[in-house]
Amino acid sequence: xxxxxxxxxxxxxRGGTLSAAAKMLGVKHxxxxxxxxxxxxEIRTRLVVRAPGGLTLTxxxxxxxxxxxxxxxxxxxxQDEISGRDVSISGTVRIGAPDAFGAYFLSxxxxxxxxxxxxxxxxxxATPRSFNLTKREADIAIALTMPERxxxxxxxxxxxxxxxxxxxxxxxxxxxxxxxxxxxRHRFISYIDDLIFTRELDYLGEVATGIDAAFQSSNLxxxxxxxxxxxxxxxxxxFLASGCPDLKLVLPDAVRLVRSWWIIVHEEQKNIAxxxxxxxxxxxxxxxxxALLMQPAAHNL
Length: 301
Fold this sequence. Notes:
The protein is built from 13 helices and eleven strands. By secondary structure, it is of the alpha/beta class. It folds into three domains: 3-83, Winged helix-like DNA-binding domain superfamily/Winged helix DNA-binding domain (Arc Repressor Mutant, subunit A, Orthogonal Bundle), CATH 1.10.10; 91-158 and 260-289, 3-Layer(aba) Sandwich (D-Maltodextrin-Binding Protein, domain 2); 159-258, D-Maltodextrin-Binding Protein, domain 2 (3-Layer(aba) Sandwich). The chain is elongated, with a radius of gyration of 23 Å.
């Protein structure tokens, strides 16, 4: 079987369109189309369904994709092992992470990783969602819960603290908050209930019963900026609020939430040097910032 044909199938599965696949492979979209047609002719089976919205794989295409990705992975692993690239790695690593962790915590800390490995490329998908590593939506996923199933290698990286925050201007203009009961009289900011992708983000019930958020957003940065503008009180991670001296921690002794981050890699990719070294780097960066993660900043108190 022509390997270029199989690469076209892999790229289409990951990109969803001929143009996206062509960009991944560095060829024209007509070349990708020709390779797909050649592959279908070679095995006498329809592999791809073409539609106005993009391309999807048939059942036969999905079965062949699994074999093609296994071949791709074996080749990558062999290259890493033979060439001994642990000192300087190359290639692309895609990291899927929650929005605040990815955009605020991780992205500014990638400088050292890329300085040490100039041939490495990092793609950071920082958005509040789950990532399917089996479908290669990411090489490394950062999650708030340990996955229940799948051929995945998981380890707990760190824990972080959260508290209730509000702007100094809001607190100066509203009734004093001296107890948890007082929170029920205040306007809350939180996630959109039916868009919460993991139960670990469903905070309000842990803080107090009967709280209904007046402003909801699926994006934590939107929640934070709403709190800074004086819209209401909001549950935020300490590490994120630390960059906002205008936010004040409310009831620091009475309300203290703790969550954990897990790093997840597909079992077949755990020994690829660029994936392993990137995962180790993220884990070490979190270990270096344990105090930032678990303790509120002095200017928030």
